[in-house]
Write a structure and sequence with these properties.
Length: 159
């Protein structure tokens, strides 16, 4: 999977450089500085890898009878589905520090009047976790992504 393909060189690079001896002065100069961390967007593999996860996520949602009827409009309209997936990928890309612009509705407006329950929200998160697992996204990155999406629950449910 692309996510793994990107993570492996990153890890290898980290290990290789960590093993090289450093002059004492360098160690003193750098030890106080925080290690540069790639954005979550980059660690997920970028917009294309995110789009692949969104594809699997939406397929999981479509296969889940607890929530799939909610998505009947996009499920029966190819152009609407493409647009919907694009918005999801842009939202995740932008929210994880990537160079994307999310131009969809805010979460309150997007789900207004749907009266989505907590159980439905949990089912959707399950579908996402399954997609992330399938793509080989490590637990750390999954936790970071869910920490970004989790607080949206308040705007999405029972509105
Ligand atoms: C963190 C969780 C969620 C995120 C990030 C999310 C994100 C989005 C986004 C970006 C849109 C498109 C907004 C637009 O059209 O501008 C959308 C629409 C929608 N969402 Fe959510 N959503 C979440 C949870 C849920 C849940 C739990 C349900 C129901 C089980 C749900 C049902 C829908 C429906 C039915 C639409 C409209 C689809 C259409 O265009 O027909 N969402 N959501």
């Amino acid at each position: 999977m692309r996510v793994r393909a990107i993570l492996v060189p990153l890890v290898t690079f980290g290990l290789t450089t960590a093993c090289e001896p450093k002059p004492a002065a360098d160690v003193a100069a750098t030890s106080a500085a925080p290690a540069a961390t790639a954005s979550l967007h980059d660690r997920l593999g970028g917009r294309a890898a995110i789009a692949t996860v969104v594809d699997a996520f939406v397929a999981n949602v479509a296969a889940d009878p607890r929530i799939n009827t909610r998505f009947s409009r996009v499920a029966t309209d190819t152009a609407a589905m493409r647009q919907f997936k694009g918005k999801l990928a842009d939202q995740i890309c932008a929210g994880t520090g990537g160079p994307c612009t999310y131009s969809g509705l805010d979460m309150k407006a997007a789900h207004q009047g749907m009266r989505i329950t907590d159980a439905e929200f949990d089912a959707l998160v399950e579908a996402l976790v399954k997609a992330l697992d399938g793509a080989g996204v490590p637990q750390k990155e999954q936790d970071e992504l869910l920490a970004i999406l989790g607080p949206m629950r308040a705007d999405i449910t029972m509105k």
